[in-house]
Fold:
Amino acid sequence: MMSIPVYADLAHVHDHAVQADGAFDETIHGILALKASRVRVEIRVVLQAQTVRRLPELAHFIARNLLFVDHVALMGLEPTGFARANMDSIWADPLDYADQLREAVRILSDAGLRTSIYNSQLCVLSPEVRPFARRSISDWKQTYLPECETCEVRSDCAGFFATVTYARSRGITPISRSLAPYA
Ligand code: SF4
Structure:
């Protein structure tokens, strides 16, 4: 499976995110060419401050134009390369785009697209989308906070990238399975 980032439904927003004119058109053509060659394709939507407001519009774009892809991954930022150097300007608190994320997941899943949320903590997701969250951070990169000690869903939660200590949501709160079922 080839994993291909698509940052936005608008060409100029995607091009700005990757700092390359024409990148959006090349990316969409590339996805079409891969599928025409029967290659499995995963679209990776990186959840970053500059693009999260238009998540529902991007979900509509994918559902209308790229319904044939094999998986859509909505991905919290991983602190590597460009993202690591610019984490403070591109990270957004998941609480601030929870509505857009919930709507995007609804649009994608209603369209029949296999959809996952990676690199996000369960407690900062709306209960409706928690079943789409995966424990995606490898054990050797992962850590938890003191608040997680009493959390009853910790074994299912992706936790945090250990190498970044500041990109932490203000909404980290232990979950009780009995009070807030998550799946
Ligand atoms: S409290 Fe910690 S373990 Fe529990 S859902 Fe939140 S981040 Fe995950």
User: Anything to note?
Assistant: The first helix runs from residue 11 to 18.
